[in-house]
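Quick entry, no commentary yet.
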Amino acid sequence: MEIPPVDSVFDAAEWFLDTALNDGEYLQPMKMQYLMFLAQGYYAALTQGKRFIPAVFLATERGPVEPNSYRLYGSERPVLQQRRMNRVTASFLQTIWARFGAYSPDYIYRLISAHAPYVDAFASGQNTEINLSAMADFYAGRAEKDERLKNAEFGTTRILRSQTGKAVAVKKWIPQKK
């Protein structure tokens, strides 16, 4: 069994909370759940079904939820000692943040609630586990269509700041061959 790049769901949650705070945004608990779900799905798609976070997501009427972090972060941010992430892992999370972080929780919910892995799990009943292989299959097709995710090469993206201070993912420019 392969060890996920993130030690716990709380490390991913803390990363998203800190990144939102650095961007001057309050990260609502459900938006954090959606972003972690998308990170899990896209990572599984890009790595042939491997877990990014050692966690399972359940299909609830509010969307996909990782139950431990949902309970812990539901009312207020707990005091946790965050572990440092390696650059490759943080780079991947930055790609997810750059792609989905600007959207409202409602928009992300509407997006995810139409995705087959969530729809199929929810149709089986409230709190049904969302299958990781279904996520990998579904998000593989989406990653192919999304330039930011399709070109995600772990470890080649650097995080810099724009002139306004916003975090941006930067990669070396390579011209396309005609």
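second:
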Amino acid sequence: MPAVVDLEKCNGCKGIEGKEKGTSSCVEDCSVECITLVEDDPSSAPQGREQHAVINQEECTDCETCIDVCEQEAISMLEEE
């Protein structure tokens, strides 16, 4: 069950103290480096978001570290049907 990002909640750590554009807690703490930040088009992104996290589900090891560090609670484990 890999981790997934809720794009309605993820703001790429915008406004989080100590986080500049291009950095996020989940990217920094992922031990297998399977999370990247993707630039958003500010004119169409929700809430003026500039970037959001994307998880490579094939590389994700289900460690749940990203879930623990996400201050927006935007990451969860994908539940299998």
